[in-house]
Predict the structure.
Amino acid sequence: MGLPQYDVIVVGAGFGGMGASIQLKKMGFENILILDREDDLGGTWHVNHYPGLAVDIPSPTYSYWFEPNPNWSRLYAPGSELKAYANHVADKYDVRKHMRFNSPVDGARWDDDAQLWQVALSGGETLTSRYLITATGYLSQPRKPDIPGIEDFQGRIVHSMDWDDDYSPDGDRIGLIGTGATAVQLIPQLSQSAADLTVYQRTPIHVVPKLDFPIPPFVRRLFALVPMLQRAFRWTTDVNLESMMILSVLNFKCFRVLSVGAAYLSQLLRFVSIRDKDLRAKLTPDYDFGCKRPTYSNSYYRMFTKPNVHLQASGIERVEPDSIVACDGTRSQIDTLVLCTGFDLWEANIPAIEIIGRDARNLGKWWRDNGFQAYQGVSVPGFPNFLSLAGPYASSGLSYCNTMEYQMRHRDRLFGELRRRSATTFEVTEDANSAFNDRMSKMLGKTVFGSGDCARSRSYYFSPSGETLVRPASTNQTNRENDSFPLSDYVIT
């Protein structure tokens, strides 16, 4: 057995990577290396900084339960505050010292003889570790649209994930592609000063009213002085979101009326915001509420009534050096092309790097040949000492932080058993993984993903072959399972 350079290598310095490292340090691991391709920590909250960026769930819920933040300025905090919170967590729990930035990882290979992972960096360096954790998130690989002529466009092209802070939309003619959650936040900002903004929509999105408000400074001071008050506030937002998730999404088959009610709320918002029936029709989704991540906004629909904002829903035929030609023949001259085209989640992000396990098993190929699956959302047979924090059935609960914390429970139980046995290697069994996958597939049948009409949603929740990354279980159920899963589901040596 070889001696690795590190006990654990974590790929990704966002909330997932930080959460994993914080827990590992609590368990006595100090020889940890956190690798990230960017120049600082924070993951998506470091990379994304487009105008209007904010959380799309209440801020108290988008935080670690073990580290509440009393300083949120609003119920839906701007992205800069999420970045500040990430910095605070890294410094308080002393994980920044384990981070190495500007270090893209090309792939990792299990060395069965040495019983360790070989992690290859893009610069040619190879590092070794006993354990490997990938915390690359779901939204890390941007999708570039394959549109005829886009390479020949002579104006400015800006992707929402790579926003140019020096860019000013003042007086610009803008073509914006996409109407997902990012576009819902960005369009109201660009419309304020753009001479002309044409939005190219492929799939309409359900948008519901956003109950947002500032949190006064004296309330924030009170939260800091009396943490239980903030816990109570967090409990309120958690219960509200969890109830909606359990009833309208996870139990869609029994509570379809709630999903229908949410769709009517979105319809009402469109009716109040837009008087033009034809325009409302173009903005109306033809799939069930919940198939695609719904979005909150009080201004999105109203933007399309402004004289300088236009909706194009016929599709894009081609891009020319100075314009976009739609499928209905409409030609719009533009100066800047803004891409809100989302992320290449299934093809480029699951997994985000090449991972080769036991007997040269390629994780990406194995998933595509055998279906996307992971025991408890974290472990895969054939990949010893490996945990994936953003894979099939990993996404659970109210926010990404909730997902990270149930996974912390899993690691606590698993690594605790390793320590008790003085063992160094773990691998989930094929039988345990198959049983879990079968159970998840059965449970999905009663969700909106299994029983709803999602065929036209083009949702990133679904793989090209129809699998979903969402775990069909409540937060409490998921936590209980990861506190008590049978240790016999792993081979521990």
In short: DSSP finds 15 helices and 20 strands in the chain. The mean pLDDT is 93. The CA atoms of residues 106 and 122 lie 5 Å apart.
